[in-house]
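FAQ: What does a ligand-bound record look like?

Like this one, built around adenosine-5'-diphosphate:
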Amino acid sequence: MKRLFVGIDAGSTAVKVVVIDSEKRVLYTLIEDTKPFIEEQTGSILKAIREKFSGCEFFVTATGYGAQLVKEADKRVTEISCHARGAFFATGKKGTVIDIGGQDSKVIVVGNDGQVLDFVMNDKCAAGTGRFLENIAWRLKLSFKEMEELALSSREEVSISSTCAVFAESEVISMLAKGIELKKIVKGIHRALVKRITAMLYSVSFFPPLILSGGVARNRAVQKMIEEETGEKIIVPENPQITGALGAALSGL
Ligand code: ADP
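The answer part, i.e. the structure of the complex:
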């Protein structure tokens, strides 16, 4: 019977799933918003996968904030090792993974064989996470795409002085009231997030390339600014948000 390996990254914001075969070929990927009942959600995702690949045998590895709620998991692995493994597989390179998720961010230094050499994690402050951009987008009634494009289109930017996501929101509102151009504000917001991330990066002994993972890595303005701020080469895997799920699937092999 053919054996398939399922990686489920049950994140705080999105559930990501990757199915691979024993040759490490990716057969299926899925990203969907995290629902309040992760146990039921991941149960029905797995049921659909079993139907889609009927006649196969499955080994399920779970990671992420909701990993304990993936009841059918054969194995659970930490997010740090899954992101390192997934990024190493996607790029074939040692380097430093910067993962920016919905409610946390991480920097992971990955060695020659894909092993974790060092890491730092922020799960205490929203300002260095996707939630920061989401809150402002919601306030400004802008989509991700509009936020990204406004940031990329502006030559100038304002400096956001608040280090707290909640106060930054108030700061943005008062800037708009003063008539400051929207695109300068949006670029400044992206800069504030990126500065948080680079501060984490400089707190470890990192080396290039910088490999971006997580949902926020899909934002081209964030990619460009990390490159500008650090002067280092960056690599963005084709689908950066599934990196952790890919690493989970691989760790089942
Ligand atoms: P988690 O594992 O914490 O659930 P993810 O790595 O799945 O997080 O990333 C979710 C975050 O990515 C959310 O904050 C979401 O707003 C952001 N995100 C998703 N797609 C995009 C996009 N195209 N551009 C910018 N941000 C995005």
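Follow-up question: can I read anything off the structure? Yes, for example: The first strand starts at residue 3 and ends at 10.
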